[in-house]
Amino acid sequence: MGISYDYYRIFYYVAKYKSFSRAAQVLSSNQPNITRSMNNLESQLGCVLFIRSNRGIILTNEGKQLYDHVAIAYQQLQAAERELANTKSLEKGIINLCVSETALRVYFLPIMNEFRKRYPHIHLQLSSHTTPQALQSLKNGESQLSIITTPATVEYPLRQTQLCDYEEILVAGKKYMSLADKPRHLYDLEDHPLICLSKDTMTYAFYHDLFVSNHAQFHVDIEAASTDQIVPMIENELGIGFVAKSIAKSAIKHGKVVEIPLIEKIPKRYVCLVEDRSHPLGVAGRALKRLLIEKSE
Fold first, then answer.
1. CB distance 240 to 192 below 8 Å
2. pTM across the whole model
3. Distance CA 124, CA 147 (A)
């Protein structure tokens, strides 16, 4: 039918206050304009909406029927405008994030704390995924941002931004403490049980390639489901394993594990922010991205 939204907006206030003059005041208009708009609305709808009298107006049955629908629609629009205004001012909003456990612990936790202090009304929804799962979640539109660790294969329309590097070390419990008495080659570890993340993770692929490139066999005896499981298993003398230095720091300090020095150099790994360029970020997402990049500089 193509009826102007303004006509319905004016109708809402006229019907709400049952007065053309009061509606004109609220809308910062004048009564002739309000009357003309309502006459046009009645003409386009082909029915009478008001019974006019010296004491004001009364809605006809058709007017009441229309108002029931217009009131709901207009109030919903007002609510949406308020929500958008709150979101724009970062008084409200939701960010869906994929954050790997290592990225959370070596980089993101203090930044999340600062973000919450700056924007306490922004709701963060975090999920923990492997790097391939996190990238797929972005492609599926299930998350707005992913914070992952390298290595990662990031293809268009995804975009990757390096945030920080971190160092990984080889650690062992007391049972294997003798390995720490001198620097070791990777092939010296072949007869010792190795703990690593599962085969479907980029960490597994990273260490597989590292061992193979240094002519050592890579054999994992225990596959952990999460990074958080590795240090406790090493502490309980189930094997040796590679972990971020910052994650192992406390266990080393308290004498629960020791670092095994290596002759081969473990390449640095990176914490990266990944976003989907085909899905623009909202206001809250952009604020978090700014903070992440600000802290990386």
1. yes
2. 0.70
3. 13
